[in-house]
Amino acid sequence: MQLLHSHGSSVSRLLLAGLVLSNSALAVPVQDSPRQYLLAGLDLPPKYTKKAKSPYNPDNKDPLDKAVDAIGDELDPLPYRNGQGASVLGPWNWERSRQSPDLVRPPSTDHGNVNNMRWSFADSHVRIEEGGWTRQTTVRELGSSVDLASVNMRLDKGVIRELHWHKEAEWAYVLDGEVRITAIDYEGGNFMDDLKKGDLWYFPSGVPHSLQGLGENGTEFLLVFDDGNFSEESTFILSDWLAHTPKSVISKNFNLAPEVFDHLPKGEKYIFQGSYPGSLEDEQPSGKNVKKSKYNFSHRMLDQEPKITTGGEVRITDSKNFPISKTIAAAHVTIEPGAIREMHWHPNADEWNFFLRGRGRITIFAAEGTARTFDYVPGDVGIVPRNMGHFVENIGDEPIEMLEVFKADEFRDFSLFQWMGETPKKLVVDHLFKDDPKNGEIFWNKVKSAEKDEVTLPDSAKGIASDSVDEL
């Protein structure tokens, strides 16, 4: 009824009268939704167009293709751009469109076919176990993620991810809480450590290990494996192995009577409630042939001194400062509101990124005149294939916190800004400003320092006037 009163027209009054006189279903907009308004031939009310503020209307013009924070501004994206497009009459997922406004109304610079490079962990199947859960994003969920796969796992207080190993190497980032890790190395040395939010671990291929939630709330972490075809279901698990080995063989292996093993688990335990452990010192194995590993399988990533940029912070962890991590390199990046992870590319590996906080957009330049823009919110996974140019722009009102992960031993990238400054002036100006020498001089004076500023806060975001001599 609120919908009908909002129009205050004779048509509305007639429709109201019809509703009062009949209980039958009428072809009138009885639901407060854009589709119902449009099907009834009525204009969208201001709350759906946000009047002149909204870019999602036929009259909006934006030659700069500026970012839109549809979530923060509570906008419902529609496929209008610079006088083109049309309204939506069919079914429409408004919540999903708010998360990906640049798919609904792409920048005019997008062109051609580019594979999907975004997946939300919210769309991944959750496996629920005793005191925990797990979900994964692999090449089966995100076809472009051919190099890396990921698992998001939660273990409550004292809950164990049982002793196991993988064909693939495992890299992990602690999202929250505390976790104890155990492992043995290739030489039989044991390793134990207690980790907190922002810490990493890395287990090379075949290294057996376990994980256990500590503290009152246990832990949640992100696992990354160096093969996009990885499956959490295909790990080698202690209880599962023994359940599928003849008891006579188990008896011989441990030199114990068969009845000792009468109550072994009938299959994998996977995630289960365990006894809460004592301190590392109390739990340290002490048999006569026990030895500690000479390798360090953990690293305090957030405890690293960051590189401070004009628009955020960068921490890089690879084999240079975490020597055991031979197949995975990573960066933890913070991008302040209004800032941008500068235009760049990675020559040695695909970039697998995970958004911990904030809202951002990435345009991927795939050569051959093709490019596509994707939007990301917390819990999203993104892929940028090796050597494809891209940026990450903060489009929200809070900092972006993200991980950049690579199947590589070292982190490497090329900065577009630095490349320009390291190239002869005449060559740069002839390429970009052949017919505009005045702005070419302004451009050169900006880039000639060849400064690499991984996260850039432009002068416009600082309230400083632009250097450009031309008004758009």
TrEMBL record:
SMART domains assigned: Cupin_1
GO BP term, example: oxalate metabolic process
Active site feature: 404
Superkingdom, taxonomy of origin: Eukaryota
Protein name per UniProt: Cupin type-1 domain-containing protein
Annotated source species: Xylaria hypoxylon
Signal peptide range in chain numbering: 1-27
CDD domains in the cross-refs: cupin_OxDC_C, cupin_OxDC_N
Binding of Mn(2+) 1, residues: 164, 166, 170, 209
Cofactor detail note: Binds 2 manganese ions per subunit.
Alphabetical keyword list: Manganese, Metal-binding, Signal
GO molecular function annotation: metal ion binding
UniProt xrefs under InterPro entries: Bicupin_oxalate_deCO2ase/Oxase, Cupin_1, GPI/OXD, RmlC-like_jellyroll, RmlC_Cupin_sf
Cofactor: Mn(2+)
Binding site for Mn(2+) 2: 344, 346, 351, 390
All residue ranges annotated as the Cupin type-1 domain in the record: 120-262, 299-440
